[in-house]
Amino acid sequence: MATRPRIEGVLSPVVTPFGKDLAPEAGRFVRHCKWLLKSGCSGLAIFGTNSEANSMSVDEKAKLLDALIAGGVAPAQLMPGTGHCALTDSVALTKRAVEAGCAGVLMLPPFYYKGVPDEGLFRYFSEVIERVGDERLRLYLYHIPPVSQVPISLALIDRLLARYPGIVAGVKDSSGDWNNTKAMLDAFARSGFDVFAGSEVFLLDTLRHGGKGCITATGNVNPGPIDEVFRRWRSAEADRLQAGITATRKIVQKQPMIAALKAIIAHFGNDPQWRAVRPPLVELGREEEQALIGELKASGFAMPGLAG
Amino acid sequence: MATRPRIEGVLSPVVTPFGKDLAPEAGRFVRHCKWLLKSGCSGLAIFGTNSEANSMSVDEKAKLLDALIAGGVAPAQLMPGTGHCALTDSVALTKRAVEAGCAGVLMLPPFYYKGVPDEGLFRYFSEVIERVGDERLRLYLYHIPPVSQVPISLALIDRLLARYPGIVAGVKDSSGDWNNTKAMLDAFARSGFDVFAGSEVFLLDTLRHGGKGCITATGNVNPGPIDEVFRRWRSAEADRLQAGITATRKIVQKQPMIAALKAIIAHFGNDPQWRAVRPPLVELGREEEQALIGELKASGFAMPGLAG
Fold it and tell me: If pLDDT is split at 50, 70 and 90, which confidence band does B98 have?
C-alpha cells in the first residue's frame, strides 16, 4: 500500500464556471483553481455540492478533471467528488480519479432513496471500492444530511473502516452540527480516519479535537484567512482569527451559497460570466448581490490577486 | 404537431432485473415487460422509482430501452423516466426516448438541491424541452416529494403548461395525498393535461375526477385486477373492484416496495435471480418474504402466465 502523506488543511469545493450555453468552462475553472492554490488552499475538492457537481454528467466532470491536470494542477492536491446515485457512475469517476493520481475522492452516498438501511450503504461503498480495485484509493465519506437526506452514521463508518482500513480515509462532516463532528473525532480520529469540518466555522474546534482541516464553500472566496487559522491554530491568535473567518462566513451565507460565491467571484474578478449557475439553481438578484458585496466590502473583505 | 392519441390506463413502473454481477439483464426485462402488456398494462413507465432507475447510468438505461424495442415492444406503449439531477443527462435520455418514438417521458425534477425556487425548476424543464427541440415530445411531470423531496407545485405546472402546451402533457402524482391529486385534476384536467395517480389506491377517485389512469408500483405484480378497475370504472362493480386492488396493495406495501415486488416476481415466476437489487437497496429477508408471499396466497393473489 502506498504511504504518501494524506491531504490536510483547507480544501475548497471549487465552484464550476458555466458559459452562456451553460456548458462547463475549463479555462475559467483552471484559472480559479490556480488562484485558490496560491491563495491558501492546500487542496481542491472539485465536484462537490458547491461545484454543482450533480448538475453535470460524469463525462462533463471527467473532462474538467483532465483539463485541470493538463493545466498544471497537481493531482496530489485534488479530492474530486465522485459519489452518484448510480453505482456505475460512481465507479467510473472514482476509477478515473484514482488513475489520474488524485489524493482521494469525496463520496456522497446514493441519495435518491431515503431511509435506506446502513447495510445498503455499506454494500454500495463496498461495491465501489471492490470495483475500483486499486490500493491507491483514498475514500472520504461525505456526510451532508441537510442536502443528501441520507446520513453516514457512526456505525457505518466503523464497519467500513474495519473492512477497508487505509482505503476508507476520512469524512467531510457537513451536518452543521458540532456535536456530530465531535462524535466522529472522538470515535475515529485516532484510527487513521481524517475528519474535515464542512464549514470553517468549526475549523478551530475541529483542529483542537484531532481533525485535519476543513472543506468549505467559503474557501472559494476567502482562502487566505481560513488557511491562516489552519496554520496558526496553536497560536494565541487562533480564537481571534477564527472569529474573523466566522464573521465573513456569516455575511456570505445570508444568500443562497452557490449563487453568492459566484457573484463574489464575478464582482471581485471583474468577470460577469461567473454568475451563471445551472438550473435548478438561480443566480442572485441585483439587490441581493449589491447587499452582499456592500457588506463584504464594509467588513474589509478582499480577494487579492483575483482580478489580475 | 403530432396528434397521436395520448397514452392512458394502467402503466407499470417496471422493476429492473439485475444479474449476479448487478448488471441490468435485458432478457428478463423484455420478458417481464411483455408479460405486463399481455396481463393488463396499457403502458410501461420504465426507469421509474421502482425501476431503480437512478441506480443506473444513462448508458445502462439507453441499452435497456434499445433491447426492449428490439425485443418487439411498441415504443408507443413506453413512458420512460428521463429526469436526472444533471441537465445534460436528462436531455440525453429524453432525446433518445423521443427519437425512439416513445409515447412520452416521465420526468423527475433535479433532486439533489432542496428548497430550490420554482423559477429554477421552470428553467430546468424549459432547458430540457428546448434542447430536445422535438414537437413529438410529451413530457409528464413526476411529483414524488416523499422521495425526491423536490415538489412540482401547481404554480409550476401552470407556468409550464402555458409556455409549452401540447408538450407538457401531464403528471404522475406520487404524493400519496388525494387532496393534492384532486387539486391537480381540478386545475388542469380540462386543459389537455393528463393526471395519473401514483398508486392504484387512488385509481377510481382519479378516474371519477377526470384523470387518465395510474402509474403504480404494484402494476408490476397485479396488472390484471388494476386494469379491470380502469376498464369498468363506470360500472356498478367499480367500488368492489377498487377495494380488491387496494387490499392487495396494502399487503405488498407492508414491506419495502421494490424488494417486495422483486420477491413476488421471483416466487411466482420461479426465478430466484429476480430478487437482486442494486445497493443502496437490500433484498427482503427470508422471514419477510415468507410472510409477504403467505399473505398474498391467502388472499387469492396470482400472477397468471408468469411462470410459463
Answer: very high
Pick B86's closest partner by Cβ from A54, A87, A117: A54
How many angstroms separate the CA atoms of A238 and A231, rounded?
Answer: 9
Peptide bond into A146 cis (omega under 30): no
> Measured between alpha carbons, how far is B24 from A50 in angstroms, rounded to an integer?
32
Give me the residues paired with residue A10 across strands: A214
For position A161, what pLDDT does the model report? 97
Sign of CA dihedral A79, A197, A216, B145: positive
B277/B155 Cα distance (integer angstroms): 37
Query: Rounded to an integer, what distance in angstroms lies between the CA atom of residue A52 and that of residue B112?
Result: 9
Q: In B, which residues are within 8 Å of A127 by CB distance?
A: 22, 279
Contact residues, chain A, for B116 at CB < 8 Å:
280-282
Q: B5 to chain A nearest CA, in Å?
A: 32
Contact residues on chain A for B150, CB-CB shorter than 8 A: 280
Per residue in B33-63, pLDDT (tens digit) is: 999 999 999 999 999 999 999 999 999 999 9
Answering whether pTM is above 0.80, one says: yes
Residue linked to cell 483553481: A33
Residues B261-287 pLDDT 10s: 999 999 999 999 999 999 999 999 999
* Domains (range + CATH), chain A: 9-298 (3.20.20.70)
Complex ipTM value = 0.96
Question: Beta-carbon neighbour count of residue A184 at 10 Å?
Answer: 25
d(CA B263, CA A165): 35
Q: What is the mean pLDDT of residues B182-205?
A: 97
Q: Give the DSSP per-residue string, B28-44.
A: HHHHHHHHHHHHT-SEE
Contact residues for B143 (Cβ-Cβ < 8 A; gap 6+): B151, B152, B171, B172, B173, B174, B175, B180, B198
Bridge partners of A53, per DSSP, are none
Burial per residue of A215-236, b for 16 or more beta-carbon CB atoms within 10 angstroms, e otherwise: bbbbbbbbbbbbbbbbeebeee
Neighbours of B180 (CB within 10 A): 17
In the three-class reduction of DSSP (H, G, I as helix; E, B as strand; rest coil), residue B222 is classed as coil
